[in-house]
# Entry
Amino acid sequence: MSAPKHVEPVGEAPLHGLLAEYDSPETLKKAAEKIRNAGFKNWDTFTPFPVHGIDQAMGIRPTILPWLILGGGMTGCALALGFQWWANGVDYPFLISGKPYWSVPANIPITFELTVLFSALTAVFGMLGLNKLPQPAHPLDLSERFSRSTDDHFYLLVQASDPVFDEKETGTLLETSGAIGVEAIPEDVKSESHVPRGLQYALLIITAAATIPFALSAYARESKMTHTRFDIVPDMDFQQKFKAQRENTFFADKRADRPQIEGTIAYGELNEDDHFYRGKVNGVFARTFPAQVPIDEQTIARGQQRFGIYCTPCHGQAGEGDGMVNQRASALAEGTWVPPSNLNDDRLRQMGVGEIFNTITNGVRNMPAYGPQIPTADRWAIILYVRAIQRSHKAAVADLSAEERASLK
Amino acid sequence: MATTAPDYDKWYDPPKGDNELARITDTVIRVTEVSRPPVGWYIAFAIAVTMLGILGMSIGWLFWTGIGVWGNMHPVVWAWDITNFVFWVGIGHAGTLISAILFLLRQSWRTAINRAAEAMTIFAVMCALIFPGIHIGRPWLPYWMLPIPNQMNMWPQFRSPLDWDVFAVSTYFTVSLLFWYVGLIPDLASIRDRSTTTVRRLVYGLFAMGWRGSSRQWHRYERAYLILAALSTPLVLSVHSVVSFDFATSQLPGWHTTIFPPYFVAGAIFSGFAMVVTLLVPARQFFGLKNIIEIHHLEAMNKVIVATSLMVGYSYGMEFFIAWYSGSPYEGFAFVNRAFGPYYWAYWTMISCNVIFPQLFWFKKIRTSLLGMMIICILVNVGMWFERFVIIVTSLHRDFVPSAWGYYIPTKWDFLTLTGSFGLFFTLFLLFCRYLPMVAVAEVKGQHSNSHAGH
# Structure
């Protein structure tokens, strides 16, 4: 090192403190113990790397940082769990494959990641905050020698603000502590110790301005507009075609969806026979089966099978109006359910087959129309089976054959 | 007060000859201060920037034309895009692993290499993050991955592995960056205090945030660093596990395996360590860091590589065993097809690069030879890229119905995008070598000093 340099006092700058320099961590540690034992409070050591044992030598109390990090981690954990529960389970419930809306195991990965993220952010920003960083200026920057504190030398600073500080006595104490030199550090009256006001305001304005686009998009989401939205990328939203219910000026009625031309009948759908297709003879519901329906066991079997598919959910296997849907709806007791008819009622026993056919085809009360689902011949087969049910329901012993009567005994 | 200041002029200077601390500072930081880096750096940088330009060009062409410029087809709808993503994320595991796990295990050799490995991690994760962003077909909509409701007020599905991935990789990137930056603060302060120009003092000073090495600050700093290491350890294990869930939670034979999380993590460490060695061997030659990044540090890395190679090899074997043991014909077919089907060449490239060649590291001569380790580590990187290709492409190309089978062939844009991602990686790494301390100076000094204190 060249000739030692004194820090020139800047004007009437008061004394900040005394800086002692050491050339090894061991001498620094011994000096630190000395200063600590002398009862100083406002003092610190500066080293290029964390020196083992300096904490004990200086009497540094353990930092509260780990507790802050624990708090940060718990916040992240609670936030992640709460947010996933609220977003997928409450605000917009996602039903996926019948799984519960809230199933913790599948929410663990994100919870874990956010716990770590919040802990890490707390660790870094907590450390910076507790260390009062960033710190743009410090009186020690005035000392040329101090620049070696991040290279290979070790320093100890006792501040003049310490109640035990006495320039002469403390100076002597430091000189006899194994220091290779002691230096008086004046207060830094020139540089500001905080970020310049102008820069602070600029940052504030930039931050505020940066939120404007987000605020605008949030506003756009929540507000209703009369004009169409602005599409940066059109995707496939605009295609050269007419959509249903839209205007098409090509036609006189300006409708894009064209009605069927009157009198058009699709091939094979003439359906002229009133008895077979509508259950009516001369405009009145027929009481007989149409000629196209063979009254035989095969038709009954077909009707039974179709009845099992389409009718049992409401009317039940025996047509008593006690199907699963009815049981469930009655159990819910919501007050809106109209129970299905019992097919064995006298009213329905007396009803003509034509009227039953009409009911199946077009529906009644809250029974929907089955015409579109069940082919015409099958509807007649079902009616034949219904008649068989009705017959068997009121069967008398006399109706049975001699052998069957014998089996009852 | 100042007028009554006593005379403190009794300075003496210690002998300069034996100052190991100053030597460490100088060796590392001089690299950032010299007016000209070695010629090799310029050549490497020119190549890297050209490759970076290729990345920009291929992404530009992709955005302009659409995903069709790639070879992706049905049924191989994930191809090089996701292969590259998993490859880069995997490489990005070594840095945090070295920094965090080896720190907790008190492995002192890590201090020589952790800074470069952490930097490499961050750059690799940056490369990885490109691919999910550009493979979505409508690149103006990546914000759909963020936890914000869409126009129908629906939230993302937080129980989906793809969404876990978003959280895992972004958390990993953030935490790695913080970890790296926290480690850099004291070294940036060293550069600031050595700087001779105002610009350097200002720029490095800005990022050093006024660090002056106070012991009260070191105390909190060390606490924060230790806890960050403890946090990063499960994090690093979680990230590649979550990446593997993208595959493992599906019902595709070849993907639907419970071994995936540990298998992926072992592969990630394997590829990451290989990449660190690949980068550090030339870096220490060019920048005169041979005395700090010593052969025995690299040798320790190579030992980890051979250990993880065995783990990866075990996983390959176990996959086949389970495919047979499950008795599922679909599983069995997927794996037999992997080794002997149309993509047999990819499978055997993977096996030879990942399982066979690294076994040469059992010989001390090879694992301490710079040329030997360079060749093997590059082969490992090739093999690990092929591993992801094998997992993704060979599992997909034989769909359940033979009429839906296909054979994926990459296009030139697939090649150019991959090449370009290496350009981004190398450009960033070369800039790092030039402008930031490649070795954690304060840590090396601390270790040197504290290990000598006891003697």
